[in-house]
Amino acid sequence: MADKLKLDKSMAMYEEAKTLVPGAVAGIRRPYNFVQGEYPIYFDHGKGGRVTDVDGNEYIDFLCAYGPIILGYIEQEIDQAVQKQVNEKGFCFSLTQPQQSELVRKLQEIIPSCEMAALVKTGSDATTIAIRVARAYTGKTKIARCGYHGWHDWCVEVKGGIPEKLFEDVLEFHYNDLESLEAILKANKDDMAGIIVTPVGHPLAAPVEMPKPGYLEGVRELADKYGALLIFDEIRSGFRVSLGGAQEYFGVTPDLSTFGKAMANGYAIAALVGKKEPMMVMADKVFLSSTFFPNSDSIVAALKTIEILQRDKVLDVIKAKGEKFAAQVQQVIDESGLPIEFSGGPWMPFITFNKDETGLYKKLRTEFYTQLIRRKVFLQPYHHGYICFRHTDEDLAYTVNAIRESLDVIKAMV
Question: What is the pLDDT of residue 1?
Fold first, then answer.
């Protein structure tokens, strides 16, 4: 059994924040999404593949800011490029700076579906404008969806404050299940505007899924058959599974795609990319505007990040590290004999507990992640992790051993 961490400052800051911010911290970062009382609530700084909380506890960080950190924290090349832009030219203007076109040309070079692009700030921005484009281009209304696509009205899972009429035309199908998709398409055959799917399945609090052979190809065929635009939500898989996204890795090209997260190693940027014909509805039929979308600080960060990813073959390194790590974790789990599943290797590792009628899996999960965080390994019980470039071989080896020790503790509970 590892000792409980000292988290006095985190807890005090949290109590103060409750009087300042609704819920103290937003959404998925709230304590109930971790193990309350065991995880820190505030970080102070990060470097490489590690983060340090306000109480001085340092962790190997596998959440990577929920995905944006593809290289590591405090990447000097990227920060210096941004500082140069900010100090010498500025970054927020009434008109657009030329770096926008430079980045879009780079996206055209590396992403199979990118003939044109629109730059935005967040993944939710990108997926929402993708839906708007699909509806404007096709003249149809219904959307078939599979996966988490953000917090906007049409797709958010928590429906508080949202009238049903704002999401009643969005119909959910199951990943790796072509029959569930075709049933939706058949029932709405004359009004299907688009199909949006995460090409790598990452359902909430459930194992990460890779596409079964022929699945993505089948989705592509069904989109064509029913006259719907195919949209790949690559907010998580883009610039991680492959430089050109999962579409490049699996060889299936959608009509539209959304990218973000790892695109700029933590700077706020996302993009809707796609084939020229549907994208052109944004020239006259679809309105897209924001004060901050054209800001060049994040555009410069994205350009430098992509340069480093290409130059240093970063994704090859991450994949090799991730494959080794996944194999070692799987071996530890197999040896434990516990009702656990490992998924998401080599890019998005996740340890989940198989459900049982008694609810024991919840207790096992809580105790396992309690033991893991006490060993200074930062993962989330309900969300997959990530491997970043700066995770060292020593970090990964330590984590495998921490997982082994944590599983040993919970064996007595079974």
Answer: 77
Longest dimension (CA), the chain: 64
**Separation CA 165–CA 198 (nearest Å):** 24
- Alpha carbon dihedral 230, 256, 216, 186, in 10-degree steps, equals -10
Tell whether 15 and 31 lie within a shared domain. Answer: yes
Rounded Cα distance, 113 and 273, in Å: 7
Domain range spanning residue 372?
8-73+314-413
Q: What angle do helix axes 178-187 and 215-225 make, rounded to 10 degrees? A: 10
- C-alpha 103/C-alpha 123 separation (Å) is 17
Q: Which residues of the chain fall short of a pLDDT of 70?
A: none
Query: Of 67, 104, 22, which is closest to residue 380 (Cα–Cα)?
Result: 67
Together in a domain, 251 and 295 = yes
Judge if the upstream peptide bond of residue 254 is cis by omega within 30 degrees of 0: no
> Distance (Å, rounded) from C-alpha 110 to C-alpha 249?
12
251-304 pLDDT, tens digit per residue, is 999 999 999 999 999 999 999 999 999 999 999 999 999 999 999 999 999 999
Q: How far apart are CA 275 and CA 286, in angstroms?
A: 16
Compute CA distances 53 → 60, 66, 195, whole Å.
11, 16, 41
The residue type of 370 is: T
96 with 156, same domain?
yes
| 99 & 178 share domain | yes
Asked if the structure places residue 284 within a domain, the reply is yes
* Strands 58-61, 142-146: pairing kind: unpaired
The pLDDT of residue 412: 86
Distance CA 305, CA 396 (A): 23
Cis peptide before 346 (omega within 30 of 0): yes
Whole-prediction pTM: 0.97
CB 353 within 8 A of CB 364: yes
Same domain, 226 and 244: yes
